[in-house]
Design brief:
This protein is α+β, with helices and mostly antiparallel strands and about 300 residues long. The chain has a single domain, classed as outer membrane lipoprotein receptor (LolB), chain A. The protein has six helices and 15 strands. The strands form two sheets. Strands 8-7-6-5-4-3-15-14-13-12-11-10-9 form a 13-stranded antiparallel sheet. It has a two-stranded antiparallel ribbon with strand order 1-2. Strand 9 (about 190-195) and strand 10 (about 195-200) form a beta hairpin. It is globular and about 50 Å long.
């Protein structure tokens, strides 16, 4: 999973660098201000008022009807309701990361990631013994280099909110966070994406630049988003969650692609995916980076 919304720098070669700023600038981050489905189920046509009354009395209240999806807030509620009590609580995986460097060459790295929903993510970049990575916790992000905290600031990973946390926390909290991150949650429209009906929240038809997110209308999982590129708002950053596989009552996108103006800048391929693995809370304590217990391989 990408260290989302870290500053995106453009190098002399015209490429973009998605690494946490502490790796590009060891003394700290560059400062940027925070920027700000279930498908509608048709009621069964029942023949006879007596039959309708009997079925309504016997059916559980939650299955009598589904709330209509009319905007981003009702979509978030539907996403949460679809997987309530089913979605996994923890997630670990190995990530093959291919990044485009400022000189336009490609670098391939192995990252290991440990997530606990909602809101906690540890990204180990490169060999574990190098001690480099990022922690998201407590609505903050911490950059670690050589096992030491090099920078911290208030920041969330909106990709984690849309792809994972929305199923693990009250929908009111997800709605609040997304609004604080600059999503308007309206208007809502439907499009066809990769041959599937998809809800689009934000933007107007034909607008593939303003901040918006896309949700598969059948599975109710996040699949795509757009926003002005950090560092150069004249360009467009797109994120795609593809290769969905079913895990532990939920889904995991095993392929993530980040593009700027249609060109892939960072590609992530997940393997060794495990869910509901017991994880030690120390994994998300920045001061415990070097000695936090890891789960058995």
């Amino acid at each position: 999973m990408s260290p989302n919304r870290f500053p995106l720098s453009r190098g002399a070669g015209g490429g973009y660098d998605f690494r946490p700023s502490a790796q590009r600038h060891p003394r700290g981050f560059r400062s940027h201000a925070p920027r700000s489905p279930a498908m509608n189920r048709a009621r069964l046509a029942l023949v006879g008022a007596a039959a309708a009354s009997t079925l309504a009395a016997c059916a559980p209240a939650a299955t009598q009807s589904a709330a209509p999806i009319t905007d981003g807030e009702s979509l978030i509620r539907a996403m949460h309701a679809r997987y309530a009590g089913k979605w996994y609580n923890t997630l670990t995986f190995t990530q093959k990361t291919t990044r485009r460097l400022p000189n336009d060459s490609l670098r391939v790295e192995t990252w290991n990631e440990y997530g606990a929903m909602p809101g906690r993510l540890r990204i180990e970049i490169g060999p574990r013994e190098a001690g480099n990575g990022v922690i998201y916790a407590n609505d903050s992000v911490y950059a670690v280099r050589g096992g030491q905290i090099r920078a911290r600031r208030a920041q969330r990973n909106s990709l984690m909110v849309l792809g994972f946390d929305v199923y693990a926390q009250p929908p009111e909290r997800s709605v609040q966070i997304l609004r604080e991150e600059g999503y308007t949650l309206a208007p809502l429209r439907t499009e066809t994406y990769q041959g599937r009906r998809t809800y689009v929240v934000g933007g107007a038809p034909g607008d593939l630049h303003s901040r918006q997110f896309w949700v598969d209308a059948e599975r109710l999982v996040y699949v795509r988003s757009f926003e002005p590129a950090p560092g150069d708002s004249t360009k467009t950053m797109e994120v795609r969650f593809d290769g969905y596989q079913s895990f532990g009552g939920g889904w995991v996108a095993t392929l993530v692609d980040i593009l700027v103006d249609g060109r892939s800048i960072q590609r992530e391929e997940y393997s060794d995916v495990r869910v509901n693995v017991p994880l030690d809370p120390a994994l998300w304590i920045p001061e415990r980076w070097a000695d936090a217990p890891h789960p058995p391989s």
